[in-house]
Give the backbone structure.
Amino acid sequence: MIPMLETPGSEALRVELAAFTGPLDLLLHLIKEQEMDIYDIRMEKLTEQYLARLDKMREENLAIAGEFLVMAATLLYLKSRTLLPVQDRPPEEVEEEDPKWELIRQLIEYRKFKEAAGQLGEREALHSRIFGRVPERVTASPALMGPGQVSMFDLVWAFQKILRSVEERAKAGRFSDEQFTVGQKIEFLLDRLQPGEEILFEDLFRSMSSRGEVVVTFLAMLELIRLRQLIAKQEAPLQPILIQRALDPMLDVNPVAGEGAGQPVGDSPV
Amino acid sequence: MEWARVLEALLFAATEPMEPSRLAAILREGPEGGQGWPEVKEQDVRDELAQLSERLAPRGLILREVAGGFRIGTAPDLSGWVARLKGVVRPPRLSPPALETMAVIAYRQPISRAEVEAVRGVDCSGTLDTLVERGIIRITGRSEAPGRPILYGTTSLFLEHFGLKDLEDLPNSEELRRVKLPAPADPSGPQQEELIHEASESAPQS
């Protein structure tokens, strides 16, 4: 239930990891390989090379992410357009700019960010080799406690206790065949807890009488913790676990990224 | 300066970047039940930090300015040795797709998933989730755009992970913040023309 770190199509990811991070990355690679000028792309040549590359991936039995196929269709369209004499183009397109520019524009922008990603990667490589002291769990004072201080084991252990008590209640004859979804329970939790408010872990489940409802609520809680909307905390080891709603990011006057610089996060000129 | 030793001890024991103003405040306040140096100003601390950094240079430790504060760490060329210690974990590095997603967010925050995907041309939900989980980015709010999509921004852990003082410290930040983003839906006419203009102008350089 928990180990779903990379949800969408792990196969698509394999292509990304195996070779290119996406169709734009592949196109840039081909443009470079063919020594083309990005502002003067030869559509026919590029399309041919691109399709050849996809074929090769297919031969190697790599699942091809949908985005690569969409790009193939776009390239074929752009190529077909270059074959049409201007007077034969649909009238609404004659006046317009060549749609090829749309792709070129995207490539140029993507390239800038790809280069920036490369530079960030170099910084990361350097700084991952510097070790600093990390907070020690046992000696940390309660004031320093942040998210992640309650381990998964603590939570699961507390959850098992809840499950046992629910089963007893169920035995006592209280039944409910209502169906619950994680989505509903996420809403329930966000309703129940206002930003900053906290509640005892056990109290969250107090009114529930079916195993299913408890399990679904627990999953919803884990999801919200993962999204950093909820925080699980504990004053000290073996103390009761508290679930706190994170402060509403919208109201957070001191956005983390701008700290120290005293600068609001959202002020970059758009 | 007597308090230089105190400064060194504070930086050594700290488990997060220390802002010079905070260090100065501690020095003025004094030790538990004792007398501090009420005259110490933030600038004095900064000067002393610069000296400390020089003193450390030939040694096994370095002083870095990251995420708005200062931190003592081990020298990067010694990482192989330090990694032999039990319990020392280096944070895993990001995958190329995650780095790309990270770059777009870093320069263009706050930004929605659709906007990131418009730049990268691929689905980014997986990498976004991973980055949120690792605490490198966070949900900063919702956009006013239709559907009120969630917006993402960087955290101070992002600055630490990449060894950045602040967001201004990002490489080429001026240029990349100016880059126009492809609109998630269809782009408006005039904007597109502008860009084509810009593109053809700078063509000879590439």
